[in-house]
Structures are given as C-alpha cells and as structure tokens.
C-alpha cells in the first residue's frame, strides 16, 4: 500500500510575513523582559555576591572554590541568554560552548577553566542579560504607570470630586479621561520603546560577529581541512601501493615467468610454447584491465567530461551489486565537490560488493538549499561497518573533510548500512 506524500506550503517570507511576526515577537519580548525584571535582579545579585565573596575569601582558599563555581554560573547564565535571543529573535547564533580540554588531568581542566574565564563572548552575553534585567525593571514600572493611568481615565465613573495624582497634587475628575488617556498612551509608547531598544542592544552586543572568533573558527576549519587532505592523500597512496603490490605486480611477474618458459620451449616443444604465450597474453589483458580500474580510481575522466550524473551511471553499470540510481542535478558543481561525492559513492559500492553481502544498493544525489551537494548510499547487507584508520571509510571521511563537508555512517549489525555526505558546492 502506498500513500500520497503530504504537502505543506512553505513558510511565508518577505515584508508581509515579517509584519505578521513583529507583533508576536514584540509581545513575547515584553513578557520576557517583565519576567527578567522580576527574577533578574536576584540572579545578578547572587552573581555579584559570589564575586565579592570569592575575592574576599581568596586568601584562605575557600574563595577560589567560590570563584570556580562563579565561572560555571556565569557560563550557565550566558548560555541561557544566547539561547533566549535565538528563540526570541531568530538570530541563529552558535550555542555557547565550554572551552575544550586539550590536556589530560587536572592541569588540562584548569587551563580550560582559565580560557573560559576570559571568554569575551560569555561576558558579552552576561552583560546583555544584565541590561535586559534593567530594562525589565523599567518595563515593570511603565506597566504600573499604564495601569494607573488606565484606571485614572475612568475616575469620573467613581467620583465627581477631585482625583489624587499620588504626588501630593489633585485635579478635577473631569480632567481624568484626558490625563489618564495621555498617561496610558505614554505608557504604551514607553513599553514598546523598551522592547525595541532591547532588540537593538542585543543585536549590537551579542549578535554582532566577533572578528577574532570568526578568524579562530576559520583557522580551525582550514587546519582540519588541510589535515583531512593530508590523511586522504596518505590513505589513497597506501591503497594504490597495495593494489599495485597485490594485484598488478604479481600478474606482471607471472607474465614474465610464463614468457621465459615459452622461450625455453619454443624450439623443443612449439605447441607448449604457444600455450604458454596464450596464457601470458590472457594475463597481460587482465593486468591492463586492472591498471585501467586503478587509474579510474585515481581520476575519473568521465567526471570532468560529462559530469557527476554520467560518471555515476558508468559506476553503477560496473558495480557487481545491482544499483538503483536516483540523481537529480540542475547543473554542474565545482570539481572538488563532485570528485568527493563520486569517490565516496565508488568506495561505498566497493565496500558493499566486498563485505556487506548486499543484493541491492540505492544511491540518491541532490543539490539542497544553501548550495550543498548531498548524497546517500544505502545497501541491504549485513551491516556492522566501522571506520578503521587507513580503511576505505576513513578515506571517505578524510576526502569529504578536505572538501569542507561532513559525512555520517549508520551501519547497525544486521543492516542496513547507509552513508550520507554533504559537501558545499557553491561556486
């Protein structure tokens, strides 16, 4: 039984959708600021008290423990603030992460704690939290002002005398609707202004890209890609050496020995010599086939000439395991992206033929939104595939990493095995 795929319209975009979302976000901002105005002063008071207590007791050692706990508390508050802004405004900021421990033992933990203590992004998020709490306190006062003004506007319904302003002055109740209405309007304007000001401040403090952080992330990404490229080259060189040593080289040695035997028998036993020459000829053709396959594994010329779709079709036609190919590409992607996906699929099909005992493989290739070349290879074999250093799957991971992509392997024991890769293909 098959069911028709469900369809849901894509989310609206553009000025109309933004206008529809703005009142909701504004209302949520007011609610969150009001909540922070209630609890935020207590949180900041605890953090400030912990800071003073930690420095005050540091001379006896207990304060150091308080300061360590304070770093963790500040990290928690900063993490919450970034998550709150992402949920409220959709800033799509990366989550705050604890600095990694790159050394074993207590020294490594202490170093990571010190690095976290001067993490500028954490302190900016804390500063934004403190400002939001202050704005929340101001918002609560404006809300109280709005409530008092709204009640004052209806004062003529309850009294015909004078109305007390609460600041030692009084005015006739006939003026109450005008004064109360103006006060309520001013309160609404103030509440909305505070909510909008919170967004502007948050964008300036937390959502503004940190150039040093961006540069550090670029350095880490470049280093990882370079390391992946080096490891992929090492794995590829090892594979070529293994294929030459275990395949072509013994066959060529056998051809040489067979021709030598034929040379010895060509005068005494011409028929046996002819048989040996025929055997050498067959072995030579097999060696040429293996060399072609080896060269194709190094560089697929059809990939450059006709693109990924044609290259995968040729690859599926040579596979000993039947392949269901589903490739939908609108155009060409950069060569590095196409090569990474092609060799990933080729290695996956080779592994399926050698180890998985699969009777069918399915290959799906798409270009997803955002300029990402995505591929999935799945077989119905026995599963249990693992990434081993120097193995084929390790080579896949290194090649994909060198191209700036990611890959995911799912191979439970009993199958099926699926491998997904995503490689940036934006030119």
Can you summarize this structure?
This protein has 427 residues and is of the alpha+beta class. The chain has helices at residues 15-56, 62-89, 105-117, 120-153, 176-207, 211-265, 270-298, 301-306, 308-318, 335-356, 392-402; strands at 162-164, 170-172, 323-328, 361-368, 372-379, 406-410, 417-424.
CA-based shape: elongated
Distance between the termini: 42 Å
Query: Class by helix and strand content?
Result: alpha+beta
Which sequence of SSEs, written as H and E, runs from N to C?
A: HHHHEEHHHHHEHEEHEE
Range of strand content: 5-15%
In spatial order, strands of the major sheet run: 3-4-5-7-6
Tell me the number of helical segments per DSSP (H or I, 4 or more residues long): 11
Give the low-confidence spans: 1-20
- Strand count, sense and closure of the main sheet? 5 strands, mixed
Task: Please tell me how large the radius of gyration is.
Answer: 35 Å
Mean pLDDT: 75
List how many beta strands DSSP finds.
7
Helix content: 55-70%
Can you characterise this structure?
It is an enzyme of class 2 (transferase). Keywords: ATP-binding, Kinase, Membrane, Nucleotide-binding, Phosphoprotein, Transferase, Transmembrane, Transmembrane helix, Two-component regulatory system. The chain has 427 residues and is an alpha+beta fold. The chain has 3 domains: 13-208, no CATH class; 229-298, Up-down Bundle (Single alpha-helices involved in coiled-coils or other helix-helix interfaces), CATH 1.20.5; 307-424, Histidine kinase-like ATPase, C-terminal domain (Heat Shock Protein 90), CATH 3.30.565.10. The chain has 11 helices and 7 strands. The strands form 2 sheets. Strands 3-4-5-7-6 form a 5-stranded mixed sheet, with helices on one face. A two-stranded antiparallel ribbon has the order 1-2. β1 and β2 form a beta hairpin. The two termini are 42 Å apart. The model is unreliable at 1-20 (pLDDT under 50).
């Amino acid at each position: 039984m098959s069911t028709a795929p469900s369809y849901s319209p894509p989310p609206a975009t553009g000025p109309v959708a933004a206008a529809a979302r703005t009142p909701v976000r504004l209302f949520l901002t007011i609610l969150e600021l009001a909540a922070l105005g209630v609890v935020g002063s207590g949180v900041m008071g605890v953090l400030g008290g912990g800071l003073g207590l930690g420095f005050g007791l540091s001379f006896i050692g207990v304060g150091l423990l308080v300061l360590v706990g304070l770093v963790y508390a500040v990290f928690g508050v900063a993490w919450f603030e970034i998550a709150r802004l992402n949920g409220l405004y959709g800033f799509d900021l990366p989550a705050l992460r604890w600095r990694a421990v790159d050394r074993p033992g207590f020294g490594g933990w202490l170093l990571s704690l010190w690095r976290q203590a001067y993490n500028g992004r954490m302190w900016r998020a804390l500063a934004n939290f403190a400002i939001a709490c202050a704005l929340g306190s101001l918002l609560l006062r404006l809300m109280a002002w709005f409530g008092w003004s709204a009640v004052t506007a209806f004062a003529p319904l309850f009294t015909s005398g004078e109305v007390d302003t609460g600041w030692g002055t009084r005015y006739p109740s006939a003026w109450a609707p005008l004064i109360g209405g103006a006060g309520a309007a001013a309160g609404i304007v103030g509440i909305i202004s505070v909510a909008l000001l919170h967004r502007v401040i948050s964008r300036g403090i937390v959502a503004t890209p940190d150039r040093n952080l961006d540069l550090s992330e670029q350095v880490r990404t470049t280093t990882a890609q370079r390391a992946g490229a080096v490891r992929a080259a090492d794995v590829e060189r090892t594979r070529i050496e293994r294929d030459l040593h275990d395949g072509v080289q013994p066959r060529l040695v056998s051809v040489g020995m067979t021709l030598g035997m034929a040379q010895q028998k060509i005068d005494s036993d011409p028929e046996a010599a002819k048989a040996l020459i025929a055997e050498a000829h067959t072995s030579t053709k097999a060696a040429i086939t293996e060399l072609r396959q080896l060269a194709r594994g190094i560089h697929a010329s059809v990939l450059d000439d006709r693109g990924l779709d044609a290259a995968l079709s040729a690859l599926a036609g040579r596979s000993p395991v039947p392949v269901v190919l589903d490739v939908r590409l609108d155009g060409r992607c950069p060569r590095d992206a196409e090569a990474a996906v092609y060799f990933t699929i080729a290695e996956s099909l080779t592994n399926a033929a050698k180890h998985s005992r699969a009777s069918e493989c399915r290959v799906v290739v798409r270009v997803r939104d955002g300029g990402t070349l995505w591929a999935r290879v799945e077989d119905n074999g026995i599963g249990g595939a693992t990434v081993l250093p120097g193995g084929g799957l390790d080579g896949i991971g290194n090649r994909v990493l060198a191209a700036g992509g990611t890959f995911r392997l799912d191979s439970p024991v009993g199958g099926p095995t699926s491998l997904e890769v995503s490689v940036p293909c934006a030119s």
